[in-house]
Amino acid sequence: MARHPKLKKLAFVPAFALTLSLAACGDNGSDTDEADDADASAQEVDLVEPGKLTVCTNLPYEPFQFTEDGEVVGFDVDLMDLVADELGVEQEIVDIEFDVIQSGTALNAGQCDVGAAAMTILPEREENLDFSDPYFDEVLGLMVEKGSGVESLDDVREQGLSLGVQAGTTSLDHAEEEGFEPAEFPNSGAQLQALQAGTIDVALQDLPVVENTWLENPDIAEEYELAEVIDLEAQYGFGVQKDGNPELLSVINDVLAEAREDGTYAEIFEKWFGAPPTE
Q1: Topology, domain 7-135+237-273
Q2: Burial (0-12, 13-18, 19+ Cβ within 10 Å), 202
Q3: Roughly how many angstroms between the first and final C-alpha of the chain, as a whole number?
Q4: How far is Cα 106 from Cα 224, in angstroms, rounded to an integer?
Q5: How confident is the model at residue 40 (pLDDT cuts 50, 70, 90)?
Q6: Which of 42, 121, 165, 200 has its CA 20 to 30 A from that of 181?
Q7: Average pLDDT score, the chain
Q8: Secondary structure string (H, E, C) spanning 139-167
Q9: pLDDT score recorded for residue 18
Q10: Are the C-beta atoms of residues 112 and 87 closer than 8 Å to each other?
Q11: Whole-model pTM?
């Protein structure tokens, strides 16, 4: 279990705090009542451990969640920090297998309050989890060795090359739908190591991992390249226990909406992906 301290973001003012500040500056009783109701709503959220928002994730999955200088950071981590701030608690991160998160097992066992692991919203997962509103578009990237002549999954099939994916992910689902029997790895780090060791010939992974992490490394970019971009027309969501924590789900959705409206989401997005989000 790796603990991530609550981040201080001077540019971000939690909605509850903002409402309270406005109420303090005026005599509008309705504003005060609304602030009290919002604060009470936050207090009603059941947490696995009081005073903490316990978040299950799978490391490393840069730039969404990974360890840097002994601290867990990333896009999902920053968004969950906003939720923790709204609740007036700190975020604590639990690193476990992705399959245990997406199946709902970890949440049902009380290991965490929310799953935040670049998790695609899929019908089969919605049977096990309640998802938040979408927060990121799902696109895959195929990484291959430079000079291999591989430009698509069709080329991988025609050349009889071995394909590697991360277990329990949409990369696995897509590969199997395309008729492959890919090698499966517990996380993106193990997948990359297998590619570099020659255990697999090509890797199918979420595009931000390929483009914003793997190929940002000069040594990797010297030997490998992005061959194909595959838009699955799906989106990521945060997951809570199925029918188990509607109050927390409501807070998460409110925080995401507020962050999009006040520009905080765009700031966090550009911080981790190098460019603002497209509408």
Answers
A1: D-Maltodextrin-Binding Protein; domain 2 (3.40.190)
A2: buried
A3: 36
A4: 35
A5: very low
A6: 121
A7: 87
A8: EEEEEEECCCCCCCHHHHHHHCCCEEEEC
A9: 27
A10: no
A11: 0.76
